[in-house]
Every structure is written in structure tokens, then in C-alpha cells.
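Morning. Coffee machine broken again, so started the prediction first thing and wrote up yesterday's gels while waiting. Chain of 145 residues, entered below exactly as on the submission form.
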Amino acid sequence: MLSSCREIPTSVKVGNGPSFSFHGSGRLASFRIYGPQPGYKIATPFDAKSLVWRVQPTEGYFKGARVEGLKIEYGSIPVGYTQAIPNSGTASALPPGQVYYFFAETTNAPPAEGFFYLDGTTPIQIKVPGLCQSGFVGDVKALKC
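Came back before lunch.
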């Protein structure tokens, strides 16, 4: 009986498109994709200048969709969400041969995050060892941990 109340951390599987398939017990408060800065091949997490796409619930932070069974296609705004970045138009195509970072911020369960390499049109979920962001507000710089 108590197991039905258990919090299930959010997890995300990256698929073609790229697309993002969710599992967990929370609600999606925002979803972000970061791309590498010019001259780099790997995105720096949480760098505002690297943010290429962000969606958030239209009704507010705590009113997001349940993540269990949710699927989001990059550049396609889910029902009940608005696009915050870019603030107009559609999301730019993601150039292949680079490493991108996603962050799924959730309520009522831990978030999910990860990197994916875009090999042509096929995304491959990968680990990027030893990459941390700085703790300073403002410019975010990738640091070796």
C-alpha cells in the first residue's frame, strides 16, 4: 500500500528527432536543451548563452504535465506548455557532431539531466566525465572536477 506513494526519480531516454521519453512520479516544471558555444563541441550546462530551447507550463511552475509516459520532440511545444527560448519563432535545428545537454526540472520528484551526442540525425545518450559548472552567478565556465 505504501509503495503507491513512493517518489520515483525522473528518468529520460533520448530517441530520434531528438525526442525525450520520460518516466517518474513528478510533473515537468521546465525542459531545457543547451548547445555548445562557438568553437566548442560540448555544451556547458546552465550557461544562459548556451540555452537553445526551453519550454515551461503555461499555467505555472507547479502545473506541469505528469512525466510518466510523457514524450517531447525537440522544437515541438507540448500541449499545456509555452516556449520561453527562443522567445519567438521555432527552435533552430541542432547541428550534428556536437554534444548537447538536457535538463528536465520537475516538481514532486528529483529532476533528470544528461548529455547526448548528435551523430548525423541519431542522438546517442552519453556520459561526460569530469565536467562541472562553476558555482558563480553570471558567466558559467566548464571546470574539471
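The two ends are 42 Å apart (CA to CA). Going to sketch it on the whiteboard this afternoon.
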